[in-house]
Amino acid sequence: MEHINAGDTAWVLVSSALVMLMTPALGFFYGGLVRQKNVLSTVMHSFVVLCLVSVQWILWGYTLAFGPDVHGWGMIGSFAWLGLTGVGAAPNPDYAPTIPHEAFMVFQMMFAVITPALITGAFAERKRFKAFVAFSLLWSTVVYDVLAHWVWGHGGWLAKLGVLDFAGGTVVEIASGSSALVAAYVLGRRIFHEPGEDVEAHDVPMVILGGALLWFGWFGFNAGSALGANPVAVNAFVTTNVAGAMGALTWITIHWWHRGRPSVVGAVGGSIAGLVGITPAAGYVTPTAAILIGLIAATACYGAIQLRDWMQHDDALDVWAYHGVAGMVGVILTGVFASNLVNPAAANGLLAGNARQLGIEVFAAAVVCIYASGMTYLCLKVVNLFIPLRVTESEEAMGLDLSQHAEAAYPR
Amino acid sequence: MLIAAFGSFAVLLVAWALAPSPEARPADPTREAADRA
Which stretches does DSSP call E strand in A205-313? Predict the structure, then answer.
């Protein structure tokens, strides 16, 4: 107990609360973007994932992700910490030597919560509620927990390879983004939604509120990933803020020239792209590098959205572009800009003379994308054997708020 | 305690799986109002 640092513990607990807030914030962000007949069902997706994964993580998720490695293969954690057996006040030096192990666990729980919630934007407005619950629980177990072990678990094979992922560019962003793309293809297009048609956000202030709360929560997400109140956390805080800002400014600029107006929804979306881009890099790069990451991530994300119709998918809220593409950009640029002058515990990137790190980052991004995509396809097909993934055509026309929850967001 | 925790979560999940879908319920006035709108 004598090794516990009060400042570190306080910061990680506050960060956990900040990251927790991001999931309902995501519900507001997504909820504002959909049509008003689907707003409650969209918010409900995020809220239920928060509840579902909070329990799953305690019972079996945490031990699969961070438990002692099985056979030293780096593939999965053992059941040793099932139900948090042995996870208590004493620090675990493999993960965070200055805070209680339970504080580390709850911080990681919030990442496990938000990741499947991110995917819900891809199948918004057409997924059956029961199928969504079954899919989320299955996906959390066989995709998130496994990838978290590979990248962040003690003995994880990608961790041993040397991948740098400060706060979840691979585990959270690429995993959710590539899974979202697969989900969009498997579920198919929404009815009454033609290719090329943009669904207008039904409540732009709600989108802004959600986006602003996501940005606020991202300080916990990234700076909290330092697992202590220390200089690396401060750097992550600064890089996070400036990358989000640069992402928004970049998006406004591109949209203004491309569509002739500085879009409000676009500004919020651009900040999200910048924040996603900096996520894997936040504790490894300088603030000036973060400006470039925000710019490149937002540009790539904007480009990916323009390809939506060419790719013939109906990823309703562009999860693939925001999280998959901007996440990949962030992971790859981590391999370019990482500097151990920022974080003495980390490897250098390409610009500091270590080209190998860039190769590791590209490899990890590809592996995570392929695994998440393949397993998501399997999860959806398995769930569909028991519960139809989509609502019926008449239910979709009525809207999911009424057809799935018998409630209306704006009763008349 | 561990078994009880797992058991309670499992009971909830089974209850959700067996729960009637909304369309099987008696008509909801809110729903009817929205249908008319």
Answer: none
- Report residue A90: phi and psi, to 5°: -70, 135
* SS3 state of residue A5: coil
Does residue A82 contact residue A63 with C-beta atoms inside 8 Å? yes
- DSSP H or E run through A204: helix A204-223
Closest listed residue to residue A97, CA positions, set A12, A185, A217, A210 = A12
Chain B residues within an 8 Å CB radius of A406:
22, 25, 28, 30-31
Q: What is the DSSP string of A128-188?
A: -HHHHHHHHHHHIIIIIHHHHHHHHSTT-HHHHHT---SS-IIIIIIHHHHHHHHHHHHH-
Instruction: Give the count of alpha carbons within 13 A of B15, CB side only.
Output: 6
- Whole-angstrom Cα distance, residue A52 to residue A166? 25
By CA distance, what is A60's nearest residue in B? Answer: B6
* Distance separating alpha carbons of residues A411 and A70, to the nearest angstrom: 53
Report the C-alpha gap between A366 and A360 in whole angstroms: 10
Pick B9's closest partner by Cβ from A55, A405, A412.
A55
With H, G, I as helix, E, B as strand and everything else as coil, classify residue A40: helix
Contact predicate A393/A125, CB 8 Å: no
DSSP state of A323: I
Residues of chain A under the 50 pLDDT cut: none
pLDDT at A198: 72
Residue A193's pLDDT is: 73
